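Researcher: Please generate the 3D structure of the following complex. Treat every line as part of one assembly.
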Amino acid sequence: MSETTVDNGKRTWLIATGCAGAVGGAAVAVPFISTFSPSERAKAAGAAVEVDISAIKPGEKLTVEWRGKPVWVVRRTPEQLEALKKVEVQLADPESKRNPNELTPAYARNQGRSIKPEFFVGVGICSHLGCSPSDKFQMGPQASLPDDWQGGFFCPCHGSTFDMAGRVYKNKPAPDNLEVPPHMYLSDSRLLIGEDKKA
Amino acid sequence: MADFKEISPNAPLAEKALNWVDNRFPLSKLYKEHLSEYYAPKNFNFLYFFGVLSMLVLVIQILTGIFLTMHYKPDAALAFASVEYIMRDVPWGWLIRYMHSTGASAFFVVVYMHMFRGLIYGSYRKPRELVWLFGCAIFLALMGEAFMGYLLPWGQMSYWGAQVIVNLFSAIPFIGPDLALLIRGDYVVGDATLNRFFAFHVIAVPLVLLGLVVAHIIALHEVGSNNPDGIEIKAHKDANGKPLDGIPFHPYYTVHDIMGVMGFLLVFTAIIFFAPEFGGYFLEYNNFIPADPLKTPLHIAPVWYFTPYYSMLRAITNEMMYALIVCVIAAAYLGATRAAISSILKAAIIGGALLLMGLMLAIDAKFWGVVVMGGSVIILFFLPWLDHCEVKSIRFKPTWHTYLYAVFVINFFVLGYLGIKPPSQINERISQVGTLFYFGFFLLMPWWSRLGETKPVPDRVNFVAH
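Model: Done. Output below.
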């Protein structure tokens, strides 16, 4: 087509209407994409959970569900608490300094990452890709673990290891320690997971 | 637009009917272009069955899938039981379901063979780049389709596999966590996730797949099929303009492919009837346990067709990042000193390498694992522009190229094998070497594919009548 046949007035309007149409089309995508986000019902389901911890014996673990995730309550033995000191050099973040606001509430920024040294409360979801690590509380050599294993957790998906305070070992796929959820003790035997305002 | 064609009123009814249609829809034209006058090289070998077989499996999957949706319930509370209901109570439901689950694995077997054939015979080279690109897009869509379909039985492997893959997205800096939330539709994989994966699996992705398959075939029929010799058959035509080394797809290859289809169905049905779980590789044993969000199975591995990429994901640890940084330094050094490009480009290479190294140190290895896994599939798209060999087919490439391709295939199998194994120190090292080889094979291809003496390419295809 030769230059002289171009009607510039029409072309301007074609471009303008085309752009307006594209903007309108893109705006229509917003409600569609929005339906992907969590529904009001999903957002509302997040209430705190109360747990009776009196029945947990030393060296045992209780799993409770909070916001659809497994939360572990582990009662550590004196040997396990002792091991927390020994493994510190092998850990990626022994003092819980990475992302402290998301992962470790202020009252758990200690060696045992807990309010009471004996009880560890943590979300049992690996910080790598969200698998739930399995218990490897027994010390000593065993499959997939180093020979000087001091007890802790092992993620079956990608081999990340954590100590008895959910602290991740160095050179593992998981970058962060396990999350400690907000929690508080209502009494010696009653633990509230998901809330800590009064603590 | 064709002229309206009149036909003798005395013509047979069938001929008149066809003429009526042809004047309104290009039926005869399409038939000729894609079947009776589509000239395919006469020297196709065994590996050329797999394109047709991919189509066959696609049809099987769509057909069985439609019937499965009539009984399946995409609800976290009902899904697992509804699959068991199909297996036990729906008449012949077990067969339909086993056809679908075996079909998923068969799909990857035939597609991998199809891709392998394209790889060794240079079927991605000019002018078939778009055929290859559409094919890679099909592979990507197929991976998405398989992944989302695997969640539907709502077993332990379904659940935790989806949990891991969706969490891959949360490794992306800044937008990752919100993106993962958008995919799941909840804070954990749950009912919302299952329901949307169902929608994607049964309608959205299949539509995309079908569209891509059509594009793949239209592009192929525009440029014509490659062949094991990698010779353009259009270079030698007879007086009628038909390729001398070509034969009409129908009836020659349609009949020929029936044999391939028979062979395939023989194996396919044998698996369905005698080993539908295939030793835990086609249907993983842990998936017979209903999904439990509180407990990950002791050993979790993806289905076999994803394991090579999964191995590469696992290979990226903090230590591996240092090895990768060394690779970036080496690449930048070679680019800046050896490549014949302007100094501005060289400065850009160094700047880019420095930026990349900074990011590699700043962002978690987890994110780079995801990048490597994604990159291992995406890199296939670039193959047409990576291969600089003078000849297309492996038959005329230097002999050592054949060994290199063999190592590549073995490496792919080793990575696949390691992906189903529990993590261990030695496996991690092997998969790290394997990952470097996989990427080295592609990224260094512009260099190594030019090396060595190619063999003389014949004028006409090698063909022995039988």
